[in-house]
Design a protein that fits this description.
The chain is an all-alpha fold. The chain contains 12 helices and no strands. The chain starts with a helix and ends in an 18-residue tail after the last helix.
């Protein structure tokens, strides 16, 4: 196998596994920039995956090729609604952020499987979808020598949408009034309040954006990788996304890079046999590698990466 073919396989599969991590990690970045820790990304991704698959199976015949794209929006919308539970609990009910997010993670898989059994006559998983993202080649760009073969032939289009979204998120967070207010609320909510910024509203916005992106991330997993919904559709991707967020130091561009790194680690269990250096490593070790890296990142960087100063704190407006 020549180097170009090898790079094509590596890049193509890395983008497949990195796409949902990019979306979810960007969502966590918005939430934590506003001061709300969203451990519930895993649960939000579960609901996004469930709703997108149900929508896909229901409307694929009438919507055709547009089905998975609309499914992303449906997954994102459900993610927003599900994240409101976390927003209400942490902002208004003053619940501990970690406990509230953990409740979402415990609730979502059980709710998803229960609704699946109700809708699909007692079965624990849905049928497989036919209208999925698959791999596409980008016209014109795929004709570029070498680069076109590696980066624009048989690639995962949602991954490139996620990369563009990371750039847009950077602009929003660091170059707009909304982003300035969100960061102010996450750094010093009392000072932001004295300047007339509605702290509660901004924190709600951050959590709801995280719900939108997290739901889209779950929908990408379901419509690209698993192609159905079951209890194992989302298996730790939300926590890996949080690790990418911390590794990327809450900067959308760095977060995207970290998500690509973790996506590459996830893809090794599939493409490891094509890479000479690791082709003899047992598949089971490659399969657990992303989770081991997640632990290493959380242990090694969580104390060194300085997040927003007021992240995880409860703000109580005083008269």
């Amino acid at each position: 196998m020549d180097i170009i073919t090898l790079l094509t396989i590596v890049v193509s599969n890395t983008l497949v596994y990195a796409a949902p991590l990019i979306f979810a990690a960007l969502g966590g970045t918005f939430s934590e920039r506003g001061g709300i820790v969203n451990v519930g990304l895993e649960g939000i991704m579960v609901m996004g995956a469930f709703s997108s698959v149900v929508f896909n199976l229901t409307f694929a015949e009438s919507l055709g090729a547009a089905t998975p794209w609309i499914g992303l929006l449906v997954g994102g919308a459900v993610g927003v609604l599900f994240s409101l539970i976390h927003a209400v609990a942490t902002v208004h009910l003053r619940a501990d952020h970690i406990i509230s997010g953990t409740v979402l993670n415990l609730m979502a898989p059980a709710l998803g499987v229960f609704l699946t059994k109700v809708i699909y006559e007692g079965r624990g998983q849905t049928d497989f979808i036919e209208a999925n993202f698959g791999k596409r080649s980008i016209p014109l760009l795929k004709e570029i020598p070498i680069i076109g073969d590696i980066f624009f032939t048989n690639i995962n289009v949602p991954a490139y949408v996620g990369i563009l979204l990371a750039i847009l998120s950077y602009i929003i967070i660091f170059k707009t009034t909304f982003g300035l207010r969100l960061r102010a609320v996450g750094e010093h909510p009392q000072a932001a309040d004295t300047l007339g910024i509605n702290v509660y509203l901004m924190r709600y916005a951050g959590v709801m954006i995280s719900g939108l992106f997290g739901g889209i991330g779950g929908a990408v997993v379901a419509q690209t990788i698993t192609l159905n919904f079951s209890i194992s559709t989302i298996a730790g991707q939300g926590f890996i996304a949080m690790a990418a967020m911390i590794f990327g130091k809450w900067n959308p561009i760095s977060v995207m890079g970290a998500a690509l790194f973790f996506g590459f680690a996830q893809s090794l269990s599939v493409i490891g046999t094509y890479i000479p250096i690791i082709q003899d490593v047992p598949t089971v070790y490659l399969a657990i590698l992303p989770y081991v890296l997640t632990i290493i990142v959380l242990v090694g960087f969580i104390g060194k990466s300085q997040g927003p100063a007021a992240n995880g704190t409860t703000y109580i407006k005083t008269k």
